[in-house]
Amino acid sequence: MGIQSWTYIIVGVTFAIYIGIAIWSRVKSTKEFYVAGGGVGAWANGMATAADWMSAASFISMAGIISFAGYDGAVYLMGWTGGYVLLALLLAPYLRKFGKFTVPDFIGDRYYSNNARLVAVFCALLVSFTYVAGQMRGVGIVFSRFLEVDINTGVIIGMLIVLFYAVLGGMKGITYTQVAQYCVLIFAFMVPAIFISIQMTGNPIPQLGFGDQLNDGSSMYLLEKLDNLNVELGFNEYTDNTKPLIDIFAITLALMVGTAGLPHVIVRFFTVKKVADARKSAGIALLLIAILYTTAPAVAAFARTNLIETISNKPYHEVPQWFKKWEDTGLISFNDINNDGLINYVNSEDNELYVDRDIMVLANPEIANLPNWVIALVAAGGLAAALSTAAGLLLVISASVSHDLIKRVLYPKISEKAELTAARISAFFAVCVAGYFGINPPGFVAAVVALAFGLAASSFFPAIVMGIFYKKMNKQGAIAGMLAGIGLMLFYMLKFKFNFFGGGDSSSYWFGISPEGFGTIAMFVNFIVALFVMNITSPTPDQIKKMVDNIRIPENE
After folding, report:
1. How do residues 258-284 score in pLDDT, each as one tens digit?
2. Number of domains in the chain
3. Residue 179's pLDDT is what?
4. Using one digit for the tens of pLDDT, what is the confidence trace for 388-443?
5. Cα–Cα nearest to 257, from 6, 23, 463
6. Would you give the distance in Å from CA 155 to the centre of its chain?
7. How many other C-beta atoms are found inside a 10 Å radius of the C-beta of residue 338?
8. Is residue 221 in a domain?
9. 525 or 45, greater pLDDT
């Protein structure tokens, strides 16, 4: 059976499961819609959190970045895993104890101000829309290659699927769909990784195969061979770093603190029955996430090695079928500059091959000549990863509009039924906007996602941390800090990513820090502005200080 037939079968079955869960878990109350009724078990929430966390950026793009950037790509591994630990240990239990529906809910109540709530809603919408753009692009890439439809059509199909189970089931539907999606995506990531590890090193454990000897008789280690291949083509050694140390530090920290400020991950801990379950599910999720994150460097190295050996300096008319299929999507292309018919893949102006880094994981099983069902499985995994996160983000957007904006600010007396309707309408419009950004993305998946983390780091993280651990922080300081942080990050992102405000390239980066890492600088500005404004304005009311104490004091739950 061909790849497309297998893809239709496996993707069709997984989509049927997601839709079935959505119908089974349809909700009738706002509490079920926002936080799944607060009755999700620790294991189910742990799996759902892992799926929510491992987006298209983790599944599709991260290994792709590492395969091209080598050592420099480690910033994504360090930042995202470190950030999750920071969130799980430092913030999640306290936010769960606070016991509200959304992050803007916490900001609004902690800083006793609807203005603070409105700023938080704006930040949540900005972060979520930026993040979801990357997910929709991931959906479009999978559909365009494996179902052979236009990327834009693929995005629209993904929009409809997400809309169905997000609108029908809310957080309850999303949670149990994400449990299924985790199973699909981790199986889809690990099966080809194990196959290729055995194929290249004889070791069935990819994490160990990554540092093992190749079984091609050369007695060379995988990374040693990859270093040599890269150098031969004029690239830096795979295991060497090229980024300035300050940029590595900034990107890693921005991804870490951005993770801890991501509203769609934080809200996951509002769905469990008690604080103890929040802690337990955080640990479970970390364990489940580690399976993919420790495998990604191996997948990156396998894919890079296979790509170079399969394509470099080979006649174009002899390229494998997979090359032609990906060429049709526009994500890989060959331009015969010297008209010799050979694919000249080098790190110079004579380079004739363009490879979009987002295809590396998806194309890896094809490059390695794995069975068609494995290739189709990866497609289903990529869709599961993208859709799981997209759904979580859409719910954040929906809740920010219906609960935080309409219910808490504009129409406090709105009925529960009307609020639920508003939430569903908000989700519909959110999907439409997300689809637009998926069709017109500002970059490859992981770069777009990194910008979202920078926005979260610059806005939410300081407000949440000081809200929990610094009783003196008042509403004026928090609002000023959030506005200063998000404003600076937006300016930098628009300047260097979208060429606004005179534009610029890497040579004109401030302090040598890329837009993906500038969230770190914007975060520090947020802290400084907040503390300064706090010191020249009225102190925090006593009842707010008591509320913070109540959140921080552990209980036997």
Report:
1. 877 777 777 777 777 777 777 788 888
2. 1
3. 85
4. 777 777 777 887 788 778 877 788 888 877 877 888 888 788 888 878 877 776 55
5. 463
6. 17
7. 9
8. yes
9. 525
The answer to whether 391 touches 346, Cβ cutoff 8 Å, is: no
Q: How many residues does the chain have?
A: 557
Longest dimension (CA), the chain: 78
Q: How far apart are CA 309 and CA 326, in angstroms?
A: 17
Of 86, 52, 37, the closest CA to residue 460 belongs to: 86
DSSP string, 7-32: HHHHHHHHHHHHHHHHHHT---SHHH
Closest CA to 269 of 98, 460, 58: 98
Q: How far is CA 177 from CA 95, 154, 396, 452, in A?
A: 24, 20, 16, 24
**Spatial contact of 471 and 501, defined as CB atoms under 8 Å apart:** no
**Rounded distance, CA 189 to CA 206, Å?**
11
**Residue 535 pLDDT level (bands cut at 50, 70, 90):** very high
Could you count the other beta carbons within 10 Å of the beta carbon of residue 145? Answer: 28
The two tokens of residue 243 are 């980024």
Q: What's residue 483's pLDDT? A: 94
The DSSP code for 554 is -
360 occurs within a structural domain: yes
**Backbone Cα Rg of the chain:** 23
Angstrom distance (rounded) from CA 281 to CA 264: 15
Determine the Cα–Cα distance for residues 315 and 383; give it in Å rounded to an integer: 33
Helix crossing, 360-367 with 372-399: angle to 10°? 170
Does 525 fall in a domain? no
Place of tokens 């859709």: 387
In the prediction, which pLDDT does 24 show?
Answer: 79
Host domain of residue 438: 3-453
Domain containing residue 238: CATH number: 1.20.1730.10
Among residues 490, 482, 536, the alpha carbon closest in space to that of 111 is found at 482
Rounded mean pLDDT, 101-127:
85
Token pair belonging to 544? 């707010």
Residue 445, pLDDT > 60, answer: no
How much of the chain is helix, strand and coil, in % rounded to 5? 75, 0, 20
Residue found under tokens 């994981």 = 361
Q: Could you tell me if residue 459 is inside a domain?
A: no
Which DSSP state fits 333? E
Task: Tally Cβ neighbours within 10 Å of residue 344.
Answer: 18
Distance CA(223)–CA(228), nearest Å, equals 9
Is the distance from CB of 454 to CB of 254 less than 8 angstroms?
A: yes
Say which range, 210-224, 470-484, 534-548, has the weakest mean pLDDT: 210-224
- Stretch among 110-114, 290-294, 340-344 having the lowest mean pLDDT: 340-344
Q: Which amino acid is at 525?
A: V
235 pLDDT above the threshold of 70 = yes
Residues 6 or more apart from 9 whose CB is under 8 A from it? 376
The torsion angle over the Cα atoms of residues 493, 495, 499 and 503, rounded to 10 degrees, is -150
Identify the bridge partners of residue 332 per DSSP, sorted by sequence position. 355
CB 277 within 8 A of CB 268: no
* Cβ contact 516:251 at 8 Å: yes
